[in-house]
Amino acid sequence: MLALPLDSLLPGPEATLDWPSGLLPFQHDGVRALIASERMLLADDMGLGKTVQAIAAIRILFTQRTISSVLIVAPAAIVRQWQREFRRWAPELRTLIVHGPAHDRAWQWNAHVHVTIVSYDTLRTDLSSGAASAPGRKLWDLVLLDEAQRIKNNDTATSILLKRLDRRRSWALTGTPLENDLDDLASILEFVDHGAASSRSSFSRTEALLQRHRDLQLRRRKVDVLPQLPPKQIIEIPLVLGPMQQAAYRRAEDEGIVQLRKRGTTVRVTHVLELITRLKQICNVDPRTGESAKLRDIGERLTTLAAQNHRALIFSQYTDDTFGVGAVANVLKEHRPLTYTGAMTSAARDQVIAAFRSNPSHQALILSVRAGGVGLNLQEASYVFHLDRWWNPAVERQAEDRTHRMGQAAHVTVFKYVCEDTIEERIRNILREKQKLYDDVIDDVSLDLAARLSEDELLGLFGLSSPPRGGARKTSRPPLVDSTGAEAAVG
Fold first, then answer.
1. How far apart are CA 305 and CA 336, in angstroms?
2. Which CATH number goes with the domain that contains 248?
3. What is the domain range of residue 119?
4. With 0-12 CB in 10 A as exposed, 13-18 as middle and 19+ as buried, what is 352?
């Protein structure tokens, strides 16, 4: 086969391949870099088309017969989006999503396709199956991780198993390569820098890590490459709880502190996190009376916005009818809101997105942050509300950038609520100080509450102190799971 020059394959007026549209210059650069790299961390700002750049590079590598097998690992909510984008940008490539019961997945792993797409959870399950692990027996020409921050914890089963995959090329896509600290970055680079002579210990908090990071990462910011993109305005709205909501909050906090004090030396971080979750929920809605300063404010603002033909996204970390997505939907019924949560099937979620895009009478889309914070393009909306704070700035930015991305023609406004004289205000003040420390290290950093606040700081939120240490208990960080039906508790 006659080798074609790269310039003739890239999307453009002279391309020998049929592309659905052109690419911007910085995207061309990204495609070139991926094609030339066996190891690449593509860390462009969210909304700059990392998926399209990766697919274009993969298509060209197949055309050049450089690769013959690709594995793409993505969050479950967006595996279908990857398949749709391949059908649009590389229609000649055969793709298959590995899903369903184990007996179906067994033949799917052995299917003759160009691109295999799988969720992190499914791949972890199948890689854990030992000798029957089809994905672990194969040599992949390319393994690509989307939302690669999913392997930021080096000691999780998913992270460990993924790094064992036999592969010739390793690409990782994420707009937030560092969420909590340098260990996150180290873990991602351990996947990207496969086959390197260096051991895991070389990726500690040293200059060597930062140098390797500079060698492997390609990152472009919206402000640098999309000067024409309308600005995004962040407005923090301080609210005072109404009388009944405030009474419910004070009662819950006072009772919670009493219980923490009663535990004495047996108090655990998990007990503090449970109280924080309960207080955050009451900041959303008083469960007994339904009073909500936040929902009242959202309702008033949305009525004004809808009269001006604006549409909105509303995010909550909770999904239930009392504190989260369901509660917002009930209050905003007159605006014909749609809801989008992880409890819905993939097909149902796709239908919701299609309905919101095609029917402007749906003036609001209410999403759980966990399910709707990544992978969606929702430029139809230009206003974003955060009902409650995830306490992880990168996760919040990911959610906001569902609408603040290429194709957005309107100024994007983001409203973030903080209830005064509550746990929300106290945590916000602590994280402001911590965020500044990380801003000097990397361009896009976020903080996880349970991971980044010490036990002393967590207890200090309620005027408590840690018990004496001598021979005392060890405190482990519990998973952030909420027993009230939230998709995540304290984010």
1. 14
2. 3.40.50.300
3. 6-225
4. buried
